[in-house]
């Protein structure tokens, strides 16, 4: 999903400046949470440190509440928010590849950027792997175009998918996040 941060037709320099400010802010938040360290990210899989779950769930809930309330107050037109189309098969395959890469490398693209920016060599190598994979994908994508465009289902969003009001979905996700935080705290206390 991408929201219109600037009016349509805004100068490229303004768009790039907004992207830079948001990217640096997000990277700073990830580093402050310790997620530039592959050890911290991998601890998630061993149920020792669930900071990744907490940080990402916090970001998701904050963005969701922001979009919901900005649209309620008429400050954001939800029709202007782009939601990409859902391709079930290719996105499942991509999720499996992404998850395997995360487990092997201990970093995702965002945390790899933070890791590399703070001078960690593992982050640099993960970024080299990501860019190599992107380059190779670009070379062979046409051979897999049929699969890549298969199982299209339009843009899925939870309120439409479950035929419930936006507010109900927002409330349910907030409750789910609070429950996840409570369970994560309990798991972490037990792991100490």
Automatic annotation (TrEMBL):
<keyword id="KW-0812">Transmembrane</keyword>
<protein>
    <submittedName>
        <fullName>YeeE/YedE family protein</fullName>
    </submittedName>
</protein>
<keyword id="KW-0472">Membrane</keyword>
<feature type="transmembrane region" description="Helical">
    <location>
        <begin position="124"/>
        <end position="144"/>
    </location>
</feature>
<feature type="transmembrane region" description="Helical">
    <location>
        <begin position="91"/>
        <end position="117"/>
    </location>
</feature>
<dbReference type="InterPro" id="IPR007272">
    <property type="entry name" value="Sulf_transp_TsuA/YedE"/>
</dbReference>
<keyword id="KW-1133">Transmembrane helix</keyword>
<feature type="transmembrane region" description="Helical">
    <location>
        <begin position="12"/>
        <end position="30"/>
    </location>
</feature>
<feature type="transmembrane region" description="Helical">
    <location>
        <begin position="51"/>
        <end position="71"/>
    </location>
</feature>
<feature type="transmembrane region" description="Helical">
    <location>
        <begin position="164"/>
        <end position="184"/>
    </location>
</feature>
<dbReference type="Pfam" id="PF04143">
    <property type="entry name" value="Sulf_transp"/>
</dbReference>
